[in-house]
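Lab notebook: predicted structure, single chain.

Context: the supervisor wants predicted structures on file for every construct in the current expression panel, including those that have not yet been purified. This is the next one on the list. No modifications to the sequence; it matches the entry in the shared construct table.
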Amino acid sequence: MLREPTCRFGATLLRLITARTMAGVPTISFLELCSLLSSGRARLIDVRSREEAAAGTIPGALNIPVSELESALRMEPAAFQALYSTEKPKLEDENLVFFCHLGKRGFQATQLARGLGYTGACNYAGAYREWLEKMG
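Prediction complete. Output recorded below exactly as produced.
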């Protein structure tokens, strides 16, 4: 069973978050993700397959397989809402965090989203594997 994130870093850590990049793609660490989640400031998108996500994911994440991501992010808001039962991310949303199991698909998803104009898109580099190890 997954535990709630128990990070006690608050605004101090958020101010320390830098635009670290991995080949030009902004990334966040486990502690940064934990802080963003505890403050309600992250929007998570799990880009693994439906089967992978059904086996476990980070609480609150929306599953959009990387193979569907471009079409999903190009959808009209009403169509996105109908398909995914949630509001479509806005281009200006901050902390739009993509992740997969090991990091490669999350990296690709972040590149794609940023290419479409989602300026707050970033990759959780530790991915679900790290989350599972630390939050079990």
